[in-house]
Amino acid sequence: MSNFRGVSSGFLLESRVAEDLAISDVARVFGLRTSAIRYYEQIGILPPAMRKNGQRRYDNSVLFRLAVVQRARETGFTLEEIRELFFGFPPGTRPPKRWQQLSQRKIAELRNRMKRLKLMETLLKRLENCRCDALEECGEKLLRQGDQESQPPSHQASAYGLNFGVTSRRAKEVRRKK
Fold first, then answer.
1. Which DSSP state fits 27?
2. What is the pLDDT of residues 151-162, one digit of tens each?
């Protein structure tokens, strides 16, 4: 969290200022736009604000909730996953259990994404060594390479929509007819 009107957020929480905050004040503490605060209310991540003379007013509980939202966003959670963090567990489920369950799922997702990125890097490095004069020549070599290589990483590439080095059945049939 940042400073609020030049005052540290820690001091803000200890003072009475945090009992009656305008939406712009809350947004400033977290470096958000006021539209983001209103959107979080709209989708239920934040409770509806109290109104004073028609303006939204917040107490420090919104700061606490936004601190959780901010940390969850920093660690890659989607808004839907954040909603699940707050509302997707039986009442009384303690925060550690919520974080553990969602974190384990997010870590598995990140590991899969890292595998995919590593595979993409490997394929790009192979493509960097291209010595072809025309893209059609590249395509021909990639198709031939697929006949010679039947390694599991190539099949993983296909699963990610990256068919370098993997020959489809149809491509093999076309080449056999030549």
1. H
2. 444 444 444 444
